[in-house]
Amino acid sequence: MSTSTWKTEILNRLIERDNLSKSSAGIYKSFDSLNAKIVRLREEIDRLHQDNTKLELSNALGERDILKQELESKNLQIEAYKAKNNSQLSEIRTYEKNLALLTEGYKTLQNRLKRLQEETKVKNQNIEIVNDDLLSLQIENNLLNVKVAKLTAENNELVERWMAKVSEDAQVLNDANEVLELSRKSMSPSEG
After folding, report:
1. Separation between Cα atoms, residue 91 and residue 82, nearest integer Å
2. Mean pLDDT value across the chain
3. What is the pLDDT of residue 99?
4. Per the database entry, which stretches of residues form a coiled coil (predicted)?
5. How far apart are CA 41 and CA 33, in angstroms?
6. How far apart are CA 29 and CA 13, in angstroms?
7. pTM above 0.85?
8. Could you read off the pLDDT of 86-136 as tens digits, one per residue?
9. H/E element holding 52?
10. Phi, psi of 70 (to 5 degrees)
11. CA gap 14, 8 in Å, rounded
12. Which end of the chain is more exposed for a tag (fewer CB within 10 A), N or C?
């Protein structure tokens, strides 16, 4: 049941109760009027008793019986209105209890939503911190990769230079060995 539906229902019930009360006011006025008529008729009956007129007395009693029946009918209507009014009041109390429960549930859900929003805010802050750390580590990794590449290039250059130097030294040694070998060969035939 939506909020506007039950609110509308309660307002309609209250308006209906007020209308019943207004219509009951007419009944109460009619009751007072009938009561006043009964009092007048009783006075007239007393007067008729004094006048000893049986016909007028009979008419007055007949009218009194009619008024009594009308009064009983109005009393039954009043009782029916009271019963309906009590039923509507009971329904209103039920609606008020339901409204209180719904309001309490709404407050609970609001508190839960607020708590979840706060948790989400903290999680988002933590994610931002992790993202910042990750970005920092990526930058550091990139710098280290550049440094490693530079050092690798330097190492390769040093290895190449060393290899060239070793090759050059080996060539000098080979040349020296050749010269030494030639000099040995040249010394050896004269000995032989």
Report:
1. 14
2. 85
3. 92
4. 31-161
5. 12
6. 24
7. no
8. 998 999 999 999 999 999 999 999 999 999 999 999 999 999 999 999 999
9. none
10. -60, -40
11. 10
12. C
Buried b (16+ CB within 10 A) or exposed e, 92-104: eeebeeeeeeeee
| Position 37, amino acid | K
Look up residue 187 and give its amino acid: M
Asked if 23 and 81 count as a contact pair (C-beta separation under 8 A), the reply is yes
Count how many residues are written for the chain: 192
| Contacts for 98 with CB less than 8 Å, ≥ 6 apart | 6
Query: Tokens 């590449």, residue?
Result: 149
The angle formed by the CA atoms of residues 170, 174 and 180, to the nearest 5 degrees, is 140
76-83: list long-range contacts, CB under 8 Å, 24+ apart. Answer: 77/27, 78/24, 78/27, 78/28, 78/31, 81/20, 81/23, 81/24, 81/27
71 and 30 Cβ atoms separated by less than 8 Å: no
61 CB-near residues (< 8 Å, 6+ apart): 45
Higher-pLDDT residue of 4, 121: 121
CB 93 within 8 A of CB 70: no
Contact criterion met (CB below 8 Å) for 87 and 57:
no
Phi-psi region of 52 (alpha: psi -120 to 50; beta: other; left: phi over 0): left
pLDDT level of residue 192 (50, 70, 90 thresholds): very low
**Is residue 1 classed as helix, strand or coil in its secondary structure?**
coil
